[in-house]
């Protein structure tokens, strides 16, 4: 039990240090320690981490459960899919439940957005991307967008908090309500390393 708490404390410190550049060696070291802590975070509304690969010349790879519909970001932009309230509301409740669990465990997500929410075959949502989401690219700060709380833009050394996570959830609510084709602040990406690939419906 003590080891688990220590791991979560280390994870919390790492996740809240959002704008510090890191070397590839430090990134790999942090990855191993973070994955050990993440593997202990089990909740129906949090993406289950099943394993990780952090050896060889390839970038660290996270192994998670399969999420049939991929990210909520892609789901919202699927023009052929009708999302009724009886489908959307449970997904939003799932996000709230997952975020409450993370905060209760002392973990600040710091990068909550539709790309970091995954949807399974039953249209239930799970929060992902809270491990190395702060350090998607070595030496670069995390991605900014409409989900970024104002205080993170004005402070010289910003640190994400539970409050900034709540702000990000508010921005996600607007995105779900409007279902934009593509927000100008977040251009399409060739890949998103911590977003599991969707199974073909």
TrEMBL record:
Acidic residues: bias regions: 189-201
Domain Protein kinase intervals: 1-201
GO MF term set: ATP binding; protein serine/threonine kinase activity
Source organism: Zooxanthella nutricula
The keyword Nucleotide-binding is assigned to this record: yes
Chain segments carrying region Disordered: 179-201
Domain of life: Eukaryota
Protein name: Protein kinase domain-containing protein
PROSITE patterns recorded: PROTEIN_KINASE_DOM
Keywords attached to this entry: ATP-binding, Kinase, Nucleotide-binding, Transferase
